[in-house]
Amino acid sequence: MPQDKKSGAAANRYGRETAVKIMKKLGTKPISTLSNECFLNNKLVVIKCSRKYTKCVGVSYLMLKRLDTVMGAFETEDGTYDLFELSPKVFANNMRPTRSKGASAGKVGLVTQSVFEAKGKFLKSLSIGRSGK
To answer: Is the pTM of this model over 0.85?
Structure first.
């Protein structure tokens, strides 16, 4: 089902709130209130979160240029998150443009969970509470 403005805003809020909870569990914090970026193991990382039925995450083209790592956090059936690491280069080589007609149109690339699983590095499964809350 395509997103509309309301569902897109809800997804954005979920992603930001969930990423902050994951950062806290990993012992770091966001470097800004404008993105899900943090420093982890001396690397600039963005944490992109996906609910269990959404199988892709997006990163803006501009952000991708400055990152050391893209971390995908994919919710599982039991509510935990499987964390994967993917290099920005591999992300860029496997992304497709968003179908958005809104603010992210032409600015964001999407990569599926299967790319993270096949070409990335599994880090850990992490519990942050029920459905990211």
So the answer is: yes
